[in-house]
Design goal:
Elements: H1 5-18, E1 22-24, H2 49-53, E2 62-70, E3 87-96, H3 101-115, E4 123-128, H4 140-149, E5 156-159, H5 161-164, E6 165-167, E7 172-183, E8 202-215, E9 221-234, H6 235-242, H7 255-265, H8 274-295, H9 304-323, H10 330-342, H11 348-351, H12 353-388, E10 392-393, H13 395-403, H14 409-418, E11 422-423, H15 425-441, H16 452-462, E12 467-468, E13 475-485, E14 491-495, E15 497-498, E16 512-516, E17 522-531, E18 534-543, E19 552-557, H17 559-583, E20 589-594, E21 599-604, H18 611-626, E22 631-637, H19 638-643, E23 657-663, E24 669-672, E25 687-696, E26 699-706, H20 707-728, H21 735-760, H22 767-772, E27 775-777, E28 780-786, H23 794-805, E29 808-816, E30 819-826, H24 828-831, H25 837-847, E31 851-854, E32 858-863, H26 869-883
Helix pairs in contact: 3-4, 7-8, 7-10, 8-9, 8-10, 8-12, 9-12, 10-12, 13-15, 17-18, 25-26
Length: about 900
Amino acid sequence: MAMSSDEIRTTFLDFFVQHDHRAQDGASLIPPASDTSALFIVAGMHPLKAYFAGTEAPPAPRLTTCQPSFRTGDIENVGVTARHLTLFEMLGNFSFGDYFKREAIRFAWDLSREGFGLNGDDIWVTVFGGDERLGLGPDEEAIGYWLEVGMPRERIIELPREENFWESGTTGPCGPDSELYLDRGVAFGSADDLPGGENARFLEFWNLVFMQFNQDPPNAVTPLPAQNIDTGMGLNRMAAILQGKETVFETDQFRPLIDLGEELSGRRYESGDPAVDRALRLLADHSRAMTFLIAEGVVPSNEERGYVLRRIMRRAILQGRQTLGLGPGFLTAYQDRVTELMGSHYRQLAEHRDTVAKWLASEEENFGRTLEQGSRLLDELIGRAREIGAEGIAAEDAFLLHDTHGFPIDLTLEIAAEAGLGVDEEGFEGLMSQQRRKARETAKFAGVGAARQQAETFARGTGFVSDFCGYAQTAVETTVGAVTETSEGAVLLKLTESPFYATGGGQIADTGTIVCAEGDCRAEVADVLRLGDDQVIAVRVAEGAAPDAGTRVRAIVDPRARHATEANHTATHLLHAALRARLGEHVHQAGSYVGPDKLRFDFNHPAALSAAELADVEDQVNEWILGAFPVRALSTTLTEARALGAMALFGEKYGEIVRMVEVGDGSFSRELCGGTHVRNSAEIGVLRIVSETSSAANVRRIEALTGPAAVALLRAHDRVAVAAARELRVQPDRLAEEAVTLRQKVKTLEKAAEKTAVGAAGHQADLEGLLDGAERIGEYAILVRAVTGVGAALPSLAEALKAKLGAAVVVLAEPGEGKVDLVAAVAPALIDRGISAADLVKSAAAIVGGGGGGRAHAARAGGRDVAKLDEALRVARDQITAQLT
């Protein structure tokens, strides 16, 4: 009887346990937080990297595992071929400085024949045939040990470095390997076929890696002090061999899933329809992968692991619905079958059955609606393209599918490719960038949905201008001069006299209430739109009906919000003055936000402020606050205001008569301003700077709190400091000193762990040092740097840095001899802000005389002019910061 997949797993693990190996459960598909080299576990040795690197002690010198692994690189090929998988199980035996080539070869030979019952006469092997660049000849040791176990010399094939030398990158641990092949006979090829060639006759089933050398610099190898063994046998590949199947999809882990697809669809596998075969294979693979991923805690989303999960789920839904005609709920049916097949060994599948089912059902339902409409429209576009002989789908059409109908661009690309058509990806990315810019620029009407154009039309038709009296009064008896309702149901009105400040000059609009004099209606002010010298108030009716024109009302500004806003506005003027005093007169306002919750102030300055500079600025503002200086607003001529040195906003339009606000005698703060302010600086209470970041190229941003909000923050910080001091058993005044000591210890440990992770990706870059060089713009991180000694692992380094920084954009460049390599990696949150990795590398590559491209999340380019590398990086950084302003 053929050996089942479960029996293969047990046979392998038991064999090595009998040979003094410790059987260790497979690790989670999700790497630990310290390993940023990949989103998922991609190989059997992946969870054991720290043991091989020597940064952690293994639980035993010999281990054996069956490790679930997930690889994203072949997603597009799954279903198209009969061999590509995303999720697979990798059997392995490992030695950490214990046994080496002789024992590894003996184990493989004995288990293959005695454990799995393979005919020794059908087994061939390949070995490393030497490489001049490495200064190494053929692996005579391995050849000798294969001869020792009885392998005829003619069945030992020497292959070049590209085939039989394991390297994780241009530097680091490496070594020759030896692969075992099964000869399936000339019926599967020809008499001239050999292992390692492009043929179906020889099927590789086991790879033995002899981790023997360290390579540093590239092509210079020295023996490792401890030689290790890392082997990998694909369980599914071995199942196909032992069960006598042509492909893994006919084995006992996959065939029941193919059968389920046949049962649900009424279609038959290998009945002559390639599309059906592809769909059934894809569902079999992807249903396994999604069940495992969700059971491991991944949920569908638009970022990183969640994005990969959503992608395979939607691919499965697409094939199930469109190709096989499956009805709703088929993903959970597949989940049940996967759990039946693999749940006895992987207990998490049963333990999290309900959670997996919930996410599968939800995604299938949500995407099903999107798919139905989007697929129909895409089919029409494909048909139209074929009719007119077009090469592909236009960017505008792909964007319409994505933006209006929610149809993922990945699926558009895939379906178009199946139809032999392309998609204008570059044009699509351009339209996406435009949309993100428009979304940021579009003014929101405080959630009430009225259009500004409607408000302007309404105001012009009333025949009068509202008289703003809010500088002197915050509650007035007035009259509703006009009222209307927008198409969205929002109520707009104009008061003859209004105490409500309209949004402008960085200060947000007042809130408050409008109460009918007769007491039969009450409306809440949602927004106040500034229309030149006029204003329109958007309200939400809270009681009764909206007041009619001519109704006498009492208009009341929310006093707490107004005063908090006034305090923040006056504090903004003082902050501006303090910055100019400390940094220089080049400091000018470049934007602001003034509300009751906080103040935000953007200003021109080429570099981040030091801690000392920030402290000086904060101290100066608080000194002026404590000085209890009067705050006065004066009306004067523009000429006189300028003569007095009043600060004006660049680009702001001023009339001949202006409003000038000065603090004290005006010697340190005098600005043209139409906003509301406190009457005395002491009313501000206190100012506390919360953050200082980059807003754009040569523009810095400070956010701060004043009054009760600042006091609350300071008290919260005090509580945290006291609690931390108590936890660390030191006095609060020694907390900083203790924190520095602890942080240094943590950094030392983190640096060791990060270098291990990065080294496994094939480079020796100082990840900690690069991370320290990242710049922050609000919640986003920017890292634009030149690096050396990375080579082919440059994209891996960019991805590792992006993962470590979180919401980040990373641009790296590596100069070489007459060339420059450029890579960019962008997190989804920044893609949403209009930043594209492809755009960044194209712009930078143009400076160094080259080109390249990619996708919004990852791209690569190159050039030849090394001398212009710094300029290229400046261009990339400026492009990033411009998008985040």
